[in-house]
Design goal:
Helix content: 40-55%
Radius of gyration: 33 Å
Number of domains: 2
CATH superfamily of the largest domain: Cytochrome c-like domain
Distance between the termini: 121 Å
CATH topology of the largest domain: Cytochrome Bc1 Complex, Chain D, domain 2
CATH class of the largest domain: Mainly Alpha
Shape: elongated
């Protein structure tokens, strides 16, 4: 059936919308009204804000405890032990291959096909900013003290654990100080003799 009016020489059909479309519209209108009343008038829904804040706080605690472990006086011993752990050095190698190879080379020599790369060699005994694992970790976490070298702080990108694994991989190419990783001998049990 055509509508009686004409607009720009066009006459429109006067047809009703399909019932499925109208029912969908009415159901969504009713759902919106019920959702608004239940959710906002009676506070029936839990907000995400407090839950998300609690989750973030829970994630910060382990991170700060890991960082505390790696900045204590025993950090060097801990990192040397990590450097002898195949699982940790394998994860460190994977992260190194993704982030450090461009400047320090795959073999840690800072040379690729005889061309010097911008990074310093990591496989020799000469350390410009200190060769203790904790000092190397500080550089990986916070970036190079020499801002002209362009080494970024990897802490925000990799996280402290992954940075420590990279340091473990680097230190696995070096020998720890003598006696550092030796397990102390356990004293012989004292035998009690009856008199």
């Amino acid at each position: 059936m055509l509508r009686p009016h004409v607009y720009d020489g066009i006459r429109e059909y006067d047809q009703r919308l399909p019932n499925w479309w109208l029912f969908t519209l009415y159901i969504m209108m009713a759902f919106t009204l019920v959702y608004w009343v239940v959710g906002y008038q009676f506070d029936a829904f839990v907000e995400d804000g407090p839950w998300a804040s609690a989750e973030v706080a829970a994630l910060r605690v382990p991170k700060s405890s890991r960082m505390a472990l790696l900045t204590t006086s025993g950090a060097d011993t801990e990192l040397w032990q990590w450097s002898r752990d195949p699982a940790k050095t394998a994860r460190g190698r994977d992260a190194y291959d993704l982030t450090c190879v461009a400047c320090h080379a795959k073999d840690l020599s800072a040379k690729m096909a005889g061309v010097a790369l911008p990074g310093l060699p990591l496989n020799d005994a000469e350390w410009k900013y200190g060769g203790k694992p904790s000092e190397v970790l500080k550089i990986v976490l916070k970036g190079s003290p020499d801002v002209t070298k362009g080494m970024v702080a990897w802490e925000t990108i990799l996280g402290p654990t992954k940075c420590a694994e990279v340091v473990a991989y680097i230190m696995s190419h070096h020998e720890p100080p003598a006696g550092l990783l030796e397990v102390p001998a356990t004293p012989a049990p004292v035998s009690s003799s009856a008199n």
